[in-house]
Amino acid sequence: MKRRSVLAGLIAVIGATVLPRPVQAQTLPEVLAFHYGWYGPDEGWGVSADGGRNHPNMPVGGRYDSLDPAVIARQIAQARAAGITGFITSWDGRDNRRDRVFEALLAAAPPGFSITAYVESSGGSAQALADRLAHLQARLSASPRALRLAGRPCLFVFDRVLQEIGEAGWAQARPRDLAVVGPANTEAEILARRPLFDGLHVYSMQFQTDGWWVGFEYQARRWLSRWVGWQRGQAVTTATILPGYDDRRLDNRTGDRPTTPRRGGRTFQMMLRAARAARPDWLLIVSWNEWFEATEIEPSMENGGRELEMAE
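RE: above sequence
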């Protein structure tokens, strides 16, 4: 099986579950990867207290600048070749590196590849968030490469936003003409947040997969099937997968940290099969290049392009 068929084949499967449902007739299938644009020549890459690097794996070719046009072009080309249809890029306010990377991705994305923002914080208040969202809405509405849900520009919101301003603050800040996929980590949170968002997603899958030491694929299928089922009736259903997780080199992460081994690429492959069985509208990959938590599928010196190139 050629490398594109693993993820592109999943598009065909999830797409078949979208179009027959009248309430979701305008929901197009997507395979989206969370993207991070904070890497620069003198920032974004760090060291641990022991002087070693604070990320387990190293990109092929070494550290890079997220704003380098050649890096952006390469990342998009690699993602598209693997069947990924877009990036959800980390965003935390205007006029900083991540904002500039967001703009550069929108400008560089070719037809068929979507870009959206992952809003990581509120800015301190509901009003600050409303201003941030208004800016993003205007920028996404103007771009033909912006991710869309049922015809509206769509973005994602991280847990921290609701932790900072609560559900009441979110209801006050949200623009009406913007589709938003919000955070949820449990069935109870899905039920509580249905009225607040067009769709819901879980990012921190490591807290689930950390406990799947025996029968990993069976547990992944069971959990993802329930997760997608709890979302039925939303404008879009999502399922999140990851290739592994290990943030123990980060000095500011203390206590008993969850880890998920890659198992030579089998973790990602098993989660792909589990996601296919769960039949979400959108498959979410954590992550394209979160090197500090070792969830990256971007080619590394240690793993090559294994997760992109694997065949079933």
